[in-house]
Write a structure and sequence with these properties.
It contains 7 helices and 8 strands, in the order αββββαβααβαββαα. By secondary structure, the chain is α+β, with helices and mostly antiparallel strands. It is globular, with a radius of gyration of 17 Å.
Length: 216
């Protein structure tokens, strides 16, 4: 089995796991990963995470040309924006996960720091998450908004739409976006109850100890 074949299988396995556990639904969400030769494998448009076919993933060469597989997701501008601005990005995942979308719709959510400081793990895996405004699905302006962050964020939340996370590989990206969704779920469960958040000193200790990218 070649390294690319293993990557194709891993993309489909992890996507199915996300789908089976309700982190995205229907034909929502998209996923991509760098291939060993520097190209990209991307989930096709209109496909369900629970039924991706490894052989039909959209395959791009190093110049960004589609060379094999089905037509790619319409959210390609999001993916390419992360790859072009973050040299460490080896995979990008975008979901329509319920709790994070709900949190994005609340009026007092901080757009510069979308997730409240509730646990160290969201900080470790995501850094600060930027809440971006609403865009029409497939709008290239989403990619422009990510590029405007100049590679300083590994995760963004599209208002009324869903999270997008870049990671060093496809497993890391999936783990991080799950952490984002679970933290949003915690925030909603505890809303109005005055929970004890991590203090600024505790947040800084996590950032320093685990060498977290933390854009101020």
């Amino acid at each position: 089995m070649t390294e690319e074949t293993r990557l194709r299988d891993q993309i489909c396995l992890l996507a199915k796991s996300l789908f089976d556990r309700g982190l995205t639904h229907g034909s929502t969400g998209n996923i991509s990963a760098r291939t060993p030769d520097g190209g990209l494998l991307v989930s096709p448009t209109g496909t369900a995470f629970g039924r991706l076919d490894p052989a039909r993933l959209s395959r791009f060469d190093t110049h960004g040309a589609l060379i094999d597989g089905d037509k790619p997701t319409k959210e390609m501008p999001l993916h390419t924006a992360f790859y072009d601005t973050r040299s460490t990005a080896g995979a990008v995942v975008h979901l329509h996960s319920t709790h994070s979308v709900a949190l994005s719709m609340l009026p007092d959510t901080d757009p510069d720091d979308f997730l409240p400081p509730m646990t160290p793990y969201a900080i470790m895996k995501l850094g600060k998450v930027r809440l971006l405004p609403f865009f029409l699905p497939g709008d290239a302006a989403m990619g422009d908004a990510v590029r405007g962050l100049a590679g300083k964020r590994s995760a963004v939340m599209l208002a009324n739409h869903g999270p997008v996370v870049a990671g060093k590989n496809v497993e890391a990206a999936c783990n991080a976006i799950e952490e984002l969704e679970e933290t949003a779920k915690l925030a909603l469960l505890l809303r109005g109850m005055g929970p004890r958040m991590l203090t600024p000193d505790q947040v800084q200790a996590v950032v320093t100890t685990f060498d977290v990218e933390w854009d101020d």
